[in-house]
Amino acid sequence: MNPKPRRGKNSLMNIKDIFTRAGAGIIYILVILLGLLGGRFSFLAVFGTVLGFGLFEFYRMMEKDTSHAISKIFNILLGVLIFFSVFLYLEDLCTYTLPASILIYLLILIASAIFLRRHDILHGIIYSVFGQIYITMPLSLLMLISYSYQPDLTGNGYDWIPVLALFVFLWVNDTAAYFIGSLTGKHKLIEHISPKKSVEGFVAGILFTLLGSLIFARLYPGFSVAFWMGFAVVVSLFGTLGDLFESLIKRTCNVKDAGQLIPGHGGILDRIDSLLVAVPAVYLYLILFLSF
Q1: Of all helices (H) and strands (E), which one includes residue 236?
Q2: Rounded to an integer, what distance in angstroms lies between the CA atom of residue 141 and that of residue 247?
Q3: How far is C-alpha 245 from the chain's CA centre?
Q4: pLDDT tens-digit readout, 232-291
Q5: Nearest to residue 227, comparing CAs of 146, 144, 284, 290?
Q6: Which pairs from 84-93 meet CB under 8 Å and 24+ separation?
Q7: How many CB atoms lie within 10 A of CB 230?
Q8: pLDDT in tens, 188-201
Q9: How close are the terminal C-alpha atoms of the chain, in Å?
Q10: CA 93 → CA 86, 90, 137, 158, 272, distances in Å?
Q11: How far apart are alpha carbons 4 and 221 in whole angstroms?
Q12: What residue ranges do the domains of the chain occupy?
């Protein structure tokens, strides 16, 4: 006779996993809010740390099966230096640090290609530069967004409102897409990249994010309803694209999660994947919308 399954124990484990995931998610959100609402120095500290962990997880995935000639520690340090240089540039404290740090980074990569006698050195340079484009550049643009629009709202040239809206819209989009897709999803969005994503969840994410934009239009009427709705659509579309792209990277590297830093959620890169593609799109949207 087969023993009966221990449903009670499994249920307790599932509940524990749910509480662990919820607790870790709340802590993550609080840290992000601290970085946004605490001012420009808090932003620099929190997102500089996020950048460091994100780069570490990315380069570790890239080195999973191949040891590259260019150290991931070097890439992480230079990425953080470039991010910090953007802050110095925006604060008008040291305007030459940004171009100098980028130039130094490129010169070291070029020197590596010339002097290191490895047949895969070009692959190392490509993976090094792509990590900076994929992670460092969007987070630097995120800082640029916080300095570029409506500086009179919070003073000191730093404005957290558009960045807060970006994060809230991403969270609403992801949450609605996950729950609605889990309950009603029957049509796969792009199955070969992310089998769990559905068309129903994708549409629900856009609709709920649009509802969220109406709330922002009431709270911050300095921008029109049309502006906030367009903002929401851009975040939903490009945030989903960012999520899919990171899924493609993980599938290519044959890993389930980019890291294990956040219990129940994976790594930092798993949490900011939507952000990384949404930020350049939002920055372009702000330039185009506010120029008319």
Answers
A1: helix 225-253
A2: 23
A3: 11
A4: 999 999 999 999 999 898 888 888 878 788 776 788 998 999 999 999 999 999 988 877
A5: 290
A6: 84/44, 84/48, 86/140, 86/143, 86/144, 87/40, 87/44, 87/143, 90/143, 90/144, 90/147, 90/157, 91/40, 91/157
A7: 17
A8: 888 778 778 888 88
A9: 75
A10: 10, 8, 20, 15, 29
A11: 60
A12: 28-159, 160-292
What token pair was written down for 77?
């340090």
Residue with tokens 């952000």: 275
Q: Which residues contact 143 (CB under 8 A, 6 or more apart)?
A: 43, 44, 47, 83, 86, 87, 90
- Compute the distance between CA of residue 231 and CA of residue 251 in angstroms, rounded to an integer: 30
**Structure tokens belonging to residue 149:** 């629009």
- State both tokens at 221: 């009427």
CA distance 114 to 212: 52
**The two structure tokens encoding residue 28:** 């993550």
Give yes or no for a contact between 142 and 163, defined as CB atoms under 8 angstroms apart. Answer: yes
Tokens representing 22 are 């919820």
Please give the helix or strand (H or E) that residue 233 lies within, else none.
helix 225-253
